[in-house]
Design goal:
The protein has 114 residues and is mainly α. Helices cover 68% and strands 0% of the residues. The chain is built from 6 helices and no strands.
């Protein structure tokens, strides 16, 4: 299916939907990453990938994607906060998110991240 439209984001979206329906979440995440390269858009599927990575318990990866989403959409701070609030329940999730935010703050000053 991808060969028919290798640079078409909607093709990747359809493939990912099937992968998610079959609980192949890691493969779905990899497909989103592949779509970014093929479509030459590193911001493609940012929110979808953030949510998918959270479901696979890749909290650091999910946090990076949520921060990228926030950078693209500064008015979405409360949305990102609400999504990431689920991370506070688990120590490893909380720790991973905190580390990613600290890492980001060490490279650039971003008041929203505080």
């Amino acid at each position: 299916m991808i060969q028919t439209g290798p640079a078409n984001p909607n093709v990747y979206r359809s493939v990912v939907q099937v992968l998610v329906e079959n609980r192949l979440l890691e493969k779905a995440a990899e497909m989103y990453r592949r779509a970014r390269v093929a479509c030459k858009d590193p911001r493609l599927f940012t929110l979808e990938l953030a949510q998918l990575l959270a479901n696979t318990m890749d909290y650091a990866g999910s946090t990076r994607e949520f921060l990228a989403w926030l950078e693209q959409n500064p008015a979405q701070l409360s949305f990102v906060q609400s999504r990431m609030s689920a991370f506070t329940v688990k120590e490893d999730a909380r720790s991973a998110a905190r580390d990613v935010v600290r890492e980001t703050l060490s490279t650039k000053e971003e008041p929203r991240l505080y």
